[in-house]
Amino acid sequence: xxxxxxxxxxxxxxxxxxxxxxxxxxxxxxxxxxxxxxxxxxxxxxxxxxxxxxxxxxxxxxxxxxxxxxxxxxxxxxxxxxxxxxxxxxxxxxxxxxxxxxxxxxxxxxxxxxxxxxxxxxxxxxxxxxxxxxxxxxxxxxxxxxxxxxxxxxxxxxxxxxxxxxxxxxxxxxxxxxxxxxxxxxxxxxxxxxxxxxxxxxxxxxxxxxxxxxxxxxxxxxxxxxxxxxxxxxxxxxxxxxxxxxxxxxxxxxxxxxxxxxxxxxxxxxxxxxxxxxxxxxxxxxxxxxxxxxxxxxx
Length: 299
Prior knowledge:
Blueprint: H1 5-17, H2 20-27, H3 31-45, E1 50-51, E2 58-59, H4 61-88, E3 94-100, H5 105-118, E4 123-129, H6 131-139, E5 145-149, E6 159-166, E7 168-172, H7 186-190, E8 194-197, E9 211-214, H8 217-225, E10 230-234, H9 235-238, E11 248-250, E12 260-266, H10 274-298
Parallel strand pairs: 3-4, 3-5, 8-9, 8-10
Antiparallel strand pairs: 1-2, 5-12, 6-12, 7-10, 7-11
Helix pairs in contact: 1-2, 1-3, 1-4, 2-3, 5-10
């Protein structure tokens, strides 16, 4: 068979436009050229696509069936061409990224929508986990890039880039004795159980002699909601709960909490492709926008 994609496009155009002459006008070609292309396609396929016995040629039963096949072939051809252009421009064929589970999901949702539009041919894999699992996934080459809160302990074995920040605060259950206090001192916090993150390479500040630990921010937030203690949490984690479990932020002027730095992490010697670079830059912008919104609400 010697048929080609151009012949298929002219066949589909004639079927969709309702006639060969209309297809010729739509394609900006001579009617004779379109008619010849379709006739050659019929010869190559060994079937009759149009019934020309009437004044206006219409699809035969076989032509109607072949129209669906032709559309699918053209769809695949267009997808192939689009993906090839993407690779020629330096985009990756695939990307696996791992994220700290406590990072703001609202920013991630926007990132993924924009990434889908920017790189429709990309094969994407998303992983999430605890701080230790993020580091391990990149180190073991199960992920190309990782996003995590900067803990200051993994820089020697990885390349890193600061991309943005996330606000944090002190939170308790509405039923906690500290919930009704307007201003607290560190000694007030020390009287009650503190819930802290436990993970390799993570050194959380300790302010109370009474401690419970977990390797998951959301588990800690659940324990706070159940009135088991107080915790320092990323604001987005504390806001995860519905109104019935709303956590109460505490004010402790003596405990000035810095913004949590978010780092992009990858292995040295593995240069970042254009999609990975864009992902890091855009995620940072989205984190910054969300952070300004949170700070604005708190003012």
